[in-house]
Amino acid sequence: MSATFVGMPAFPTAAKAALSDTQLRRNLAHATGTIRAKRAAVVGEVDDWEELRLAGEAIKDRVLRHLPHYLEQLEESLTAAGATVHWARDADEANRIVVDIAKRHEADEVVKVKSMATQEIGLNEALEAAGVHAWETDLAELIVQLGDDLPSHILVPAIHRNRAEIREIFLREMGNAGRAAPPDLTDVPRELAAAARAHLREKFLRARVAVSGANFAVAETGTLTVVESEGNGRMCLTLPEVLVSVVGVEKVLPTWADLEVFLQLLPRSSTGERMNPYTSTWTGVTPGDGPQEVHVVLLDNGRTDALADTVGRQSLRCIRCSACLNVCPVYERTGGHAYGSVYPGPIGAILTPLLRGVGHDEQTDSLPYASSLCGACFEVCPVRIDIPEVLVHLRGKVVDAHKEGSTLPSVQDMAMRAASWTLSSSGRTGAAEKVAGLGAKIAGRLAHAAPGGAPVLGALPGPASGWTNARDVPVPATESFRAWWERTDGGRTEAE
């Protein structure tokens, strides 16, 4: 998997920096709150929403159990429809395939439909290195590209920008990449969209090669599907002579009828709409209509490794709706850049370590800890991925990975062993509570009032600093529950 966000620190460090950006936090709170409300309204209209979630889960799990069969069927259907199928084991192989196709057609530019898979493999960078400009045509992706920025949300990549910032980016950068923005451009959304439309139109009409992903790939018919809200995808999928679609192997669905379930789940979960304004489906090549050369790159890039993980494989059900991001209290306060991955938020905290593997770099290993385990992500996931379960599972794998090759126990290991020894004996636990009570009296003198009014401790030294650098520690109680019970005879003395 491509390390797209080169040089990003581990999540705690990146999150701390993001938390100090008040404008970012305001932008995120407004955007995620709006999307949450829209989603809740349209989901509330569906009487059988939970049955739809169960159906989506079941279909995806069936695909994952029989993935080789459905992929072979998909290849046969695509080939019969006139498409050329390529298999890519990793990002480098996928990039070489797409670059070779562009160069063979002497293309010096391509237009792109918004695609997480192509971001994952770093396709834009690979094309640029080969002298081929890759133009993003999704409005939010265009904002990110013009601003020399990085996407911070699966659905709304420019969620961290407000409209005043977008206006400045358009005025400053559009002329360097094509048609300039009108000099009197305001930050009215309608005017910003019109400027983007005019800027992109010349690219649509000029480009000979387009690159897309796919939300779904139907094995039965060889049909690929893209859902979007702006129409830019429809332009990319119909105007150029050559279309290259990079599709993760987990995107396959068994039958055309299965689309019915996901075309109800996805728009409501992502944009809070009953149906996406543009749902495009194409099956290979149609003589005289649309692209006359169609390539499909089926991408692994760590997906079979994720499939082999009996707990983590459920992450491959993901349909990239971003509902988990919009309800996550951690994402809402830190934004997507802090995750240091193409896939931010709760799903990124599990998907990235599963695709990349753990135990190799600090940044990836920090992601399973980027959560409070509140469970809100599971409640809204349209395909019922139990993200908290996978997070806990991956935390265990991170710990185990760091144990390998080490003969000395870590500070965490020693702390857990000490806690186990203490708590396994009633007598030792009681003695520890008495010591803690004495410590609490001393700590009370050192405490200060938190914003809520309760006394808290400041930063603690040594190993404990890892906890207190990001949290307020409440002052321990001076009396344990056991001592209170003995003193009040189980509460009866106080009651009397």
Automatic annotation (TrEMBL):
Key word Lipid metabolism present: no
Record has rRNA-binding as a keyword: no
Gene Ontology biological process terms in this record: lactate metabolic process
GO MF, any single term: metal ion binding
Residues covered by the LUD domain: 71-299
Keywords (A to Z) from UniProt: 4Fe-4S, Electron transport, Iron, Iron-sulfur, Metal-binding, Repeat, Transport
SUPFAM superfamilies found in the cross-reference section: 4Fe-4S ferredoxins, NagB/RpiA/CoA transferase-like
4Fe-4S ferredoxin-type domain segment(s): 316-385
Protein name: L-lactate dehydrogenase complex protein LldF
Organism the protein comes from: Pseudonocardia endophytica
Record lineage: Bacteria, Bacillati, Actinomycetota, Actinomycetes, Pseudonocardiales
